[in-house]
Amino acid sequence: MSNQPYRTALVTGASSGIGAQIVRRLAQEGIEVHALARDAARLEQLSKETGCVVHAVSVSDQAGIEALVKTLEIDILVNNAGQSRTGNITNTTPEDIDALVDVNLRAVLQLTRLVVAGMIERDRGHIVNITSIAGHYAFAGGNTVYHATKAGVHSLSQQLRCDLFGHRIRVTEVSPARCETEVFGRLIGNMEEAKKRFFDEYESLLPEDIANSVAFAVMSPQRMNVSFMEVLPTMQVVGGLNFAKKTSGAA
What we know:
This protein is an alpha/beta fold. The protein is built from 8 helices and 7 strands. It has one domain (about 10-230): 3-Layer(aba) Sandwich (Rossmann fold). The protein has a 7-stranded parallel β-sheet with strand order 3-2-1-4-5-6-7, sandwiched between helices. The longest helix has 29 residues, at about 95-120. It comes from Komagataeibacter xylinus.
């Protein structure tokens, strides 16, 4: 058993992928995990497997989230729920912008605001934000709005450390690169095609890699705050430089 003071955790986007693995991993540490997502059937299966307490609520349901938080004493908040889209700012739709900002950024801000008050009162807590390398690097093919929302959560993670100065509340940002999850299948409409295009010829991260990263931060000694973890496949690098050639009519 751990000597950590944490007893409860709330994990969003918990019905599959990284979120479900985080639920499994924290449950292994003896933590009472509350799993939140829209897919009630998948949550029920996860509950049978792990014993987690399920809440079939969307992070976009502000009234539902507020009602839930009032009933819980949350020691660990894992902001994992997120969406993505194809395309960039030149061809995105107003609806896609609203959806990405709503789920990826607004919901994180609102839920963090609701939960952190109790953490301050108890002088105990840990906020874990799952972001993406898209929040730190620009690269061709990335969705501009997705990049912007993840950058916003990166900034939130840093500012929270200032807001919570003097309290025993830790903040961790875990920023994965390519990880084999269903999000790629949703982007192109076919998971089998996504596996062929993004995973079969690459040794990508797996959801349990991110769950283990979260567990490392959460289970570390209380004197230690793991502020930022950038987790990449060994064979993937970020960065690079693109330089377009002059056009024939350029001066």
